[in-house]
Amino acid sequence: MGSTGTVLRELRGAQKSAKGVSLYSRYVNRPAGRLLAAGAYRAGLTPNQVTLVSALFTYTALAAVALVEPSWTLALLVYAALAIGFAFDSADGQLARLTGRGGPDGEWLDHVVDCGKLVLVHTAVLISFYRFGELPSGAWLLLPLGFQLAAVVTFCAGLLREKLGKAAVAGAPTASPVSRVRAVALLPADYGVFCLVFLLLGAPGAFRAGYAVLAVVHTLFLAAFLTKWFRELRALRPG
Question: What CATH number has the domain spanning 4-235?
Answer without folding.
Answer: 1.20.120.1760
